[in-house]
Amino acid sequence: MKTETRSFYETAVERTVAHIVRTLDEAIDLASIARNAALSPFHFHRVFRGMVGETPLEMHRRLRLERAASRLLSTDAAITTIAFDAGYETHEAFTRSFRQAYGIPPSEFRQGNVEPRSDCVRLRQIELAAPSGVHCDNGRQQVPTISFIAGGPNMDVTIEQMPELRVAAVRHVGPYNRISEAFERLGTIAQRAGWFESAGAMMLAIYHDDPETTPAEQLQSDAGITVPEGAKLPEGVVERRLPRGRYARTTHVGPYTRLGDAWSRFMGEWLPKSGHRVGDGSSFEVYRNTPANTPPDALRTDLYLPIA
Questions:
Q1: 220-226 and 203-207 strand pairing
Q2: 192-214: average pLDDT
Q3: What predicted TM-score, i.e. pTM, was given to this entire model?
Q4: Among 63, 92, 95, 162, which residue carries the largest CB count within 10 Å?
Q5: Residue 105 exposed, middle or buried by CB count within 10 Å (0-12, 13-18, 19+)
Q6: How far apart are CA 262 and CA 246, in angstroms?
């Protein structure tokens, strides 16, 4: 079963990489790709990143830059033309991205296209670092063998049967790293309502949109706290329901800024090897302590993933 599950996710990732490499001039339809893998776009991009080290859009952008670098060295095409072919709307935007990736602007990179005069001089290298080993192959769109990330120590994951959770939530619209603003509003409301004194009350976050396909300013998430069935919800919060069912849980200890990496390991390393597949429902985070009285390295966050 574990081998079959691993093969299922590897096949889905390989299919996606092949599509990206062969259609660099086309926009990625991540929703369609995720559907073929029986996952939501949100979950699929976490699986993909965990298995190859970058998201589909990051791979797409990197390969376009590698192709642009190859064309700078092998053709006389204008830099503006190469920039447009790489998906950039302006010469300036392309130059900024190219400099960030290669350390020098495109015009200077092109000037390095000379034959080395000694063994100590190398031609410009177009390949950018990539754990997957997937590159543009000097501009030829061929699909190489993928190096899947083997992962570090095994994650400590348990499978739990969770009851339905009633959640009082404050909706946050905007970059996920600013959800703390919604938690501040929720904290004030929860304090007045006395929810912190409720037995088993948990502070949690639910993320609804895929940051790969949704503009940062439109991302929707909920800062929430579990509340009893009879609790009246005051103005400023809405009710969310997390369905009962089987969930895989792992615990991240450390700063919230590293939660994205923890999710990538959870879904990109543990999940494909586990014999399980993602089920219906939302994944969510439960915060077991608070940065108000806990140093960043000691923060404990439980990650919950619905299991089919």
A1: antiparallel
A2: 88
A3: 0.79
A4: 63
A5: middle
A6: 20
2-111 CATH: 1.10.10.60
For residues 245 and 266, what is the distance between their CA atoms, to the nearest angstrom?
A: 19
The architecture (CATH level 2) of 157-306 comes to Alpha-Beta Barrel (3.20)
CA-wise closest residue to 211 among 5, 41, 34:
41
Are 24 and 60 spatial neighbours (Cβ–Cβ below 8 Å)? yes
Q: Give the DSSP letter of residue 154.
A: P
Single-letter residue type at 250? T
- The token pair at 121 is 């001089």
φ/ψ of 287, rounded to 5, equals -100, 115
Tell me: the pLDDT tens digits for 19-64?
898 888 988 888 888 888 778 888 888 889 889 989 898 999 999 9
**pLDDT tens figures, 273-286:** 888 989 888 999 99
Per-domain boundaries in the chain: 2-111, 157-306
Position 10, amino acid: E
- Per-residue pLDDT of 114-131, as tens digits, reads 444 444 444 567 888 888
